[in-house]
Amino acid sequence: MLAKRIIPCLDVNAGRVVKGVNFVELRDAGDPVEIAHRYDEQGADEITFLDITASADGRDLILPIIEAVAAQVFIPLTVGGGVREVADVRRLLNAGADKVSMNSAAVNNPRLVAEAAARVGSQCIVVAIDAKQTSPGKWEVFTHGGRKNSGLDAIAWAKQVEQLGAGEILLTSMDRDGTRAGFDLALTRAVADAVGIPLIASGGVGNLQHLADGVMQGRADAVLAASIFHYGEYTVRQAKEYMRQRGIEVRL
Amino acid sequence: MTTVAVVDYGMGNLRSVAKALEHVAPEATVQVTANAVEIQAADRVVVPGQGAMPDCMRALAERGLREVIVRATREKPFLGICVGLQMLFGHAEEGDVNGLEVLAGRVPRFPLTAMQSAEGTRLKVPHMGWNRVTQVAAHPLWANIADGERFYFVHSYYVAPDDAACIAGSTEYGLPFTSAVARDNIFAVQFHPEKSARAGLALLDNFMHWNP
Fold first, then answer.
1. Among A64, A171, A222, B17, which is least packed by CB within 10 angstroms?
2. The CATH number of the domain where B56 resides is what?
């Protein structure tokens, strides 16, 4: 049976790994290659890099990082942030990424998802959706690091990106991100049930129970977390052992 | 010194495959190449592949590599990965295209109707992530790899060989499907050994030392 995946996420700012709270107040978390190596050793199923560099000229700094990580770490690597056109997707794949995630650019130009999927294959295209609750049972898609409301309904948008050819969805609750209060399980489940492609839940993990909840209640295919792993609170292995105890199929 | 050609026809993450081979066999020369002469001269050949099979077949034809790959499947240690496995077969549902027809069989898609796991939960397509590979037949490429070990998969199509004798590995995803085939000097896998951590590196190491 297919294992549920645990994916540590590294936010990269101008070549360094950082972690913010509610998308602001960045703290340095260390050297990306070293951290990726450690996660691989602990049994991470994949690693995601999100480039949060604000300026366009600082963004190429992620390419040597991806190259270095891909030469040493033999698990899937997803890279997102600042992807605007198909050429950006190709650049990241050529550097060693296995999947590329797009967010604001997909909202601004949904055809980009279709074009990129046609060019490099759906399996390489992840659409990241940052969603915020706007009324009970209703979430809207935010872009530009959570600053701009697109007005799109998160569930409808998830279905649309599946139709466009996305191979996977990375769903982040803006309400929970950085809060350590757990995933927005209602949001996660609503999107997981709406699409036939794999869903990664993200935003709000503060303990190992939250990861298990994301799979069992949120029905996510994979769970993503950053700070609980970065600061050595838990190892990926501990997270997997915990999930296995809860009856979740994991790779150990 | 051993040379291994990683066939570059513009489809897929060849860097990862090359890096993983260099990692397990630092003494070998790993050539990422689209040059038929180099492929023909190499001691071992790896054909990776990602994405859609019609695109892969077209890219192979455009680069004039069909012939040299078919020759490699007859002459030297050959490793196919993902679409590099699928293209060995006859007819693919995807794009209604024919493969190299080195092995007899079809390449169907996972059913479009929602598949269910044994527990009744919906299975997503693509089949993406770490799944178990049951070693249906003993093979030198399974050395030092536990039966039932997990490897990383990402695909929506799978191979259905006509001849069960070539099945080396099987995986369960809604239905049991063939995840590895072996015949003579050919070994080909649906999963990505270059992305499958230790187990994947062990398989690549075995390939680099395999003398069929």
1. A64
2. 3.40.50.880
